[in-house]
Amino acid sequence: MKRVKVSNNVIRRLPRYLRKLDELTENGVSRISSFELGQQLGLTPSQIRQDFSCFGEFGQQGYGYNVPALRTQIASILGMDRGFNAILVGVGNIGRALVDNFSFAEWGFNLTAAFDIKPELIGTNFHGVPIYSNDELVDYIHSNRVDVAVLCVPKEAAIPVTKALTENGIEAIWNFTNVELTEPNSPTIVENIHFSDSLLSLSYYVSERLDEKAAKSARAEKQA
Amino acid sequence: MKRVKVSNNVIRRLPRYLRKLDELTENGVSRISSFELGQQLGLTPSQIRQDFSCFGEFGQQGYGYNVPALRTQIASILGMDRGFNAILVGVGNIGRALVDNFSFAEWGFNLTAAFDIKPELIGTNFHGVPIYSNDELVDYIHSNRVDVAVLCVPKEAAIPVTKALTENGIEAIWNFTNVELTEPNSPTIVENIHFSDSLLSLSYYVSERLDEKAAKSARAEKQA
DNA sequence: TAGATTGTTAATCGATTAACAATC
DNA sequence: TAGATTGTTAATCGATTAACAATC
User: Fold this and answer.
1) Across the interface, do A40 and B184 touch by the CB < 8 Å criterion?
2) pLDDT digits (tens, 9 = 90+) for B8-43
């Protein structure tokens, strides 16, 4: 199915399409044009059609797109039907909050195991997920299929644990540590959740808005 | 200071620079070149110099950049020294997990109030933040400076609460609801934390990697 | 001074938008 | 059929990279 190299920008938009299509389905909408979809997502119809055309022909001239059918296609493109396995590394506040509030299953992932160093946690279950000792991590990786490690360890442990994971064949890390894991020549796939990056971007946009307002009222002042 | 319109891509990289500079400071590094910074972040030196040049001249020929000085500049560009006020709207699992684990103060924000509908929460304190009734939200906004609303309400409430917020002058929303808040002509600044979008992007990259491997071993098979 | 590295201009590359024939 | 809307090709726009004079 996938032929040409698809750009990051396109890939980042796919989950948004999926979410919007789910929302449309909930609201009983079963058909949509690229124009209308663009309206609702703040994108141009051209861009939407270009994006989809990277993966195939999912629409119909004069009609638009069938919402459930398109949803199925995008889910498949994203790998939601591959039954990926994930493990949680670090069952502290962040790890627990994540498992409490986020449904891995809803997005096609099985959370199969968790790992921590705290003796009182080891051997217990959390939301049905068994918690093992960090000492068993490497063994577990070698004897089970693990597609993604969800990294929720404390800051100090981020680099050494990442090293252990990658040296033992883990190819993808979902990183919640707010530590920069970028390594010059590493082939590991890293996806970051950086709350602070997100808030600081917002902070920039708010600052910009305030500056514009200030400049505007300064001009008005001058004119009066 | 800010003259030309700065692109989104640049703005999204600024928090990463900040984080890396903090990390360098912790490790006692006080000076860095665009080349070395690029190495550590997976960017070209050219790009880094271009990015900084949107805001001023922060380096020195033949020397590079002074880490703490550059950190101060970027913090200021991002608005970290403006003392922004934020309110938390919705004190459920996600809201509580956020306040438990994320330090607003570290990034220059004051969390001044929280709002919920649950009677048992109203009037209590959470990490020193007073929880008020949703009924008092509009009043509060009008009588206090609020720069950002942190939206942590349940899915169903996302759209109506957003409407209430924007109609009463809130200009920026940090959105944790996983609901698409994009409105065709809204001037509201929205920054999203979409866990599922992030995981699904990762899912795509892992799928791609697996497909490549499969294709490779199929070719090897054929040749043998 | 010689070497290093910046800030900036120009060149390249890639992504978005526009346009339109194909067709449901 | 007539109208609508796709998929795709070409045109435009913007972002990244390369190159280099300026200078610490």
Assistant:
1) yes
2) 999 999 999 999 999 999 999 999 999 999 999 999
